[in-house]
Amino acid sequence: MPAFEYKALNAKGQEETGILEADTPKQIRQVLREGSLTPLSVERVEKRESGTDSLKTRRAGTVKPSDLALVTRQLATLVSSGSPLEEALAMTAKQSERRSLRHVMSTVRSRVMEGHSLASGLATFPSVFSSMYVATVAAGEQSGHLDAVLDRLADYTESRQEIQQKMSSALVYPVILVVVSIAIVAGLLVFIVPKIVRVFESMNKDIPPLTQFMINASDFLSAYGLYLLVGVILAFFLFRQLLKIDTWKFRWHKLLLKLPLIKKLVRSANTGRFARTLSILASSGVPILDAMSISSKVVENLPMRKAVEDAAIKVREGTPIHKALEQSGYFPPMTVYLIASGEKSGKLDDMLERSAVQQERETDTLVSSMLSLFEPILILVMGGVVLLIVMSIMLPILNMNDLGR
């Protein structure tokens, strides 16, 4: 039974929207009238979804990672409990609070009821369900273990959401601290320093070099501060535009792999993501070459992604996975060792899982260490700048007798 998305007016004249199932739009309108609603529009969900790819992406692109993790867990729980797939999808759609997610799940259910596979229905929304997600579900359907695969996917999406939330929360305080610090220093130089040092300039005497430097810095910010701010913003947006060009983005990512501390963080984060994805795909029955190709797409660093793609070619030619990855020099030795152990013992998915856990822990440790160092360093720098400003003001006062002669 197809799904229809409707807009209607209630008895108070307020607009309501939702999704109902019926054979025809006429039945939907009848149901709405029986519920004291005046239908405005009734449109079949799948029909709208068959439009342009840009419309599809725009309509489905509002689904957040947290919502995806929640709906995956709900679907996994319902399927594991023995509920038919159609009922599980319908229940998931009804329980979704967000309109965009209801639209997605209703469309997937419609395709499943028309005879398509669940993976095919999910593939209708590439902006919501990644190729890894779709391939894993397809493998679960083919092997007859969809419930176990969905449960594994739910763990994966929840884990990724937790990591992203933890990273975002960890960066909030440092960002606020940087912005406030810059604002305080700029405020002192632009508004406070000029008023205090103006009295010293009127004496027509030599001013200490530090005080003169602060006066010059204050005059520069007063005259060109706005232009400087606009220039920084423009440079930031220009940098972001350059990163949309594959060549420049590749160069930037390659530079990150050479910077101290940063390179270790980038390697750990991308390796953990790659190992986790490859583990899920391998354990779900996806062929290893296809699994490596799909897993390369979750690697955000372009040189590392290319290394995985090159490794997949070498594996196709007969090279072991661990040797193909080791030749790039981008992947940590521990990960290479665990993959080698997994290949020898026949437990590659388990070793990949261990590698993912180890790399994720290392990433958390690195982020925590960097933030714990960054905060006191920033406070010391701020204290040094404020001290220089205070000294630039105090030196003329201490030398007042000399300036007054």
UniProtKB/TrEMBL annotation:
Record lineage: Bacteria, Pseudomonadati, Pseudomonadota, Gammaproteobacteria, Thiotrichales
Keyword set, alphabetical order: Calcium, Cell inner membrane, Cell membrane, Membrane, Metal-binding, Protein transport, Transmembrane, Transmembrane helix, Transport
Gene Ontology biological-process entries: protein secretion by the type II secretion system
GO terms of molecular function: metal ion binding
Gene Ontology annotations for the cellular component aspect, listed alphabetically: plasma membrane; type II protein secretion system complex
Superkingdom of the source species: Bacteria
Function, as annotated: Component of the type II secretion system inner membrane complex required for the energy-dependent secretion of extracellular factors such as proteases and toxins from the periplasm.
InterPro entries membership: GspF/PilC (IPR003004), T2SS_GspF (IPR011850), T2SS_GspF/T4SS_PilC_CS (IPR001992), T2SS_GspF_dom (IPR018076), T2SS_GspF_sf (IPR042094)
Membrane topology: Multi-pass membrane protein
Subcellular locations according to the entry: Cell inner membrane
Family (UniProt): Belongs to the GSP F family.
Domain Type II secretion system protein GspF intervals: 72-194, 274-396
Residues passing through the membrane, by range: 170-193, 213-239, 377-398
Protein name: General secretion pathway protein F
PROSITE patterns from the UniProt entry: T2SP_F
